[in-house]
Amino acid sequence: MRKLTLIAVTALSLTACQHETLADATTPFEMQSASAEYLTASSLPVTTVSGAITSNTTWSGVVELDGIVTVKNGAVLTIQPGTFIKAKPSAANTATGVLVIARGSKLNAQGTSSQPIIFTSYNLLDGDESTTAKPGDFGGVIMLGAAPTNKPTTTVIEGLSGVDYQYGGSNASDNSGTLKYARIEFAGYDLLAPNSGNEINGLTLGGVGSGTTLDHIQVAYGKDDSFEFFGGTVNASNLISFASDDDNFDFDFGYTGTISCALALADQNSTHSQSGSNPDSNGIELDNDGTGSSASPFTHPVINNLTIVGAGTSSFGALYENAIHVRRNGKLTLNNAMVTGYPVGVLLETVSGAAVNLSDLSFTNVQAYGYSFNFASLVGSTKSALTVSGGTATTLNGGMTQPFFNAGTVDLGVRNCGNFFASWTKYDFSIVE
Question: Which residue, 64, 110, 244, 308, could crosslink 339 as a Cys pair with Cβ 3.0–4.6 Å?
Fold first, then answer.
């Protein structure tokens, strides 16, 4: 009987043009833990951690998180390269496998291209090929800092409750540590129900400052967003979001940092978020806040070298919403971007049915393809084609030989910036008899 095997490749090489082959993508959630990487880890002793970490601590090997583990009181958590972190299975509707770096504490997690730090499903580390990883098997990683947001500094990060989980402040250069060469797989948790507003994402960043380092991070098969930035000034580079359920990149509450080299790649066979039975998954979702207020600072990320690839056919593209959705008084600076495979490439709207204010945007070399609209405005309930300075229509493939994950060999080399498609991020879905 055929089954799919998940092999996470961790070769040392970084080449200018990498390829990803897909032998069979019809049932991606039959992925099994048969690679040497996971099998080796499954035979190692497991250290179980729970509760609060209040003094400097180092993790290595395989670590199991029992519930919500919070690094607080100024402590530093160091995670050695090659460490695997998983959740301890728990009852339904109970957050587990959540790592929180509280405001004032730090994470020192510096993996390498050959030994990334891997937050993953416990089903990939049990040595049993009959078990299957699924979104939500791991809770997520949350980093909280004291950088500015447009919310009160007593605001608690969504998905959690209590004073330990407040974020924001006045220190734009606040340092929450380093997360580098890391994979976060099968994460996500919803406290109430889908789209309840109480979700934990793959990587959640609340008020994180520019003294923090985020580099070479991949979030794959998440239950909610892959990356969400709640305010803060942190910069990030070499980010890959793969097969997210909801949004790939979500910006709220006054985030003003810079993202350099980012990829969102869809798997049409993954799970897909809905709102009122309508598709709700976006490549980027960007709001100033939930009401579209004029609270300062405005949400205004600068994104350089961005690629968003959805589905290769309009029927599967209909599972998604927009490649980029800027709304509710959000602002965006976007340089050198290509988006394709969504119903709308770039959708712009404001608040209360008002006309789009193009001065909120700064686009340079932004190429978009959408099955319905390449660039569009939404005024009230009316969606219309829109001309945006710095934005041009592109073809479905966006100049790439084969950008779509479900259509055979994926070739994103033309969109590679700074060799950020490192081989540690690659997944080879092989058929095993």
Answer: 308
